[in-house]
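Teaching note: in complex prediction, the entire set of molecules is handled at once rather than each chain in isolation. The prompt given to students was simply: 'Predict the structure of this complex.' The entities are:
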Amino acid sequence: MIRFAWLQARSQTAVVGAGLAVVAILAAITGPHLGHLYATTVAECRLQQNCVGGINPFSNADYNLYGILGMLVLVLPGIVGVFWGAPLVSRELESGTYRLAWTQGVGRRRWLASRLAVVGLASVAATGAMSLAVSWAARSIDLTKADQFRYFDQRDVVPVGYAAFGLALGVVIGLLVRRVLPALATTLVAFVLSRYAVERGLRPHLVGVSHSASSLRGASGLGFALQPGGASVSLDAPHIPNAYVLSAQLVDKAGHPVSGPALHRFLLQNCPSMAISQAPLGPGAANTATPGPAGPAVFNACVDRLSSVYHQSVTYIGPSRYWTMQWKEMCLFLVGAVVLAAVGVWMIKRTPS
Amino acid sequence: MTPLLEAEGLSKHYGRRRALSECTVSIPAGRVAGLVGPNGAGKTTLLQLAVGLRAPSAGWIRVLGRRPAEDAAQLGRVGFVAQETPVYPNLTVDQHLAMGAGLNAGWEAALARSRIEGLGLDPGQKAGSLSGGQRAQLALALAVSKRPELLVLDEPVASLDPLARREFLQGLMETVAEHQTGVVVSSHLISDLERVCDYLVVLVDSQVVLAGDVADLLAGHHMLTGPRRDTSRLPADQTVIEESHTERQSTVLVRTRGPILDPGWTAKPLSLEDLVLAYMRKGRGRPGGSTSRAGLEVVA
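The expected output is the structure of the full assembly:
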């Protein structure tokens, strides 16, 4: 049975195998070179603590290549789900070969379990190898960018979980939909949705968060917005190297979030030129103040005063949690894959009657 | 001996469509049974129930004494050639044999190889490029080489040309003779099965209308012609299956266990095809299969 399952999986795995070989060769060629560049520039200056500005030893071609390779790692689990998982049963049902396959001397459940095992192993191996090659070769770039969570789902072990999940999802959808093309499309949509849901809904809760206070001085993208009934300060969340910033909020000294009217009062009192030089606040009037009309000096003075009372409270996941999060999210998807596979094996007994 | 196939009150609905209604039939062991009926009569449904590809809506079915596809052993006892003989187009003939070997405990590799050689099939050829006849032969080789006790074939020759038809049925008969395999084979044409089967089941409009040993069926039916008369006054043991009258002459197809004693009748020989066609016409004329009449009882 295992041999036959492999026989049927062979041609499709050949395509992915070829792609994998190309990626591995690219990684093997460029990786050491990038590593050398990193070691002689960024690593050096970080050690001496004298890095000037955004030091960048890599060429655009390097960034582009690793952008593309990262995308490959990102989409491979989807490809596995759509092109390996979805047709696995639906093609048998659509072409009628299930009548051949399921009347041999092996029960349907074992038939599906064996095929899932073989294709599942191939999926996990292919995705794991691809992710490993890219993660290894892109390490120098990743270390330079110091933004590891941004590439979280293109690196290390999570893609393996995604691939196993995508495969099982595709198989179950194929069993339900019973036609190849609708199964492919449905699997794609369901896979993207479940990835998105986990990324937005579950990922931030997988590991403990950290909090920090960040001063408004030197914050980037700072601006005031005056609206009817209040004022607000907009500013970019601070960049913490290799951390995953979940939220940033303007709070007062006691740590309470600032309300619009309170902020407006503060501005009226402390930076009258910022708040009053604008048209009077009234229904429908909305103005934004940036270093524009009031001049940079006034603006900076206002920021100084503001930051003596308010600061940004940042919630983030620290750099050290990266690997815990990788393993946890991978396990989450692996458990999902096992559950879906069990559902498929249970369901197949009732298909197609 | 355990019957090849036994069913009682077997029904199958697809949604609201009735594919098989309260089918009760028993095919004795060691037979080559033909399952005949017009397209859409429920033949495929009955056979798919027999091999466990579908589950009954009501009633029960036993194949070789056990529930279809109950376990791997039961699956191994029944060889199935599905309608339009599906094969994997991307796999070669050889790879199909490898599949058979991997999936069936009783697989006889030597038998499979000799069959493929005997058919002149190229083992390296992709199954997708085989002709209809070759594909059917490959499917039969797969079903036979697992050494089943029962072969179930669903319209195996429907899409074949007359020569391929003959070759296929010949191959089937050789297998049956050699391995003593029971067979249930369906066709919408009785002429395909006349030469091969010794037991007949006629299915019309989702119900069994006739079942029995071919020789018994032929001996028990008579085509009578004679002067015009009222058929309601025939002897009690004679059941009218079909009748037609001209001004002076009556032609009646009767079913009876006893001999025809009335000297007024001329008994003409009856072919199996005539017999089956008469039952098919009769079955069609029945009011929508709504009554649950026992299969063999025919009310004149």
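Point out the following to students. Strands of chain A lie at 210-214, 223-227, 230-234, 244-251, 287-289, 311-317. Residues 210-317 of chain A form one domain.
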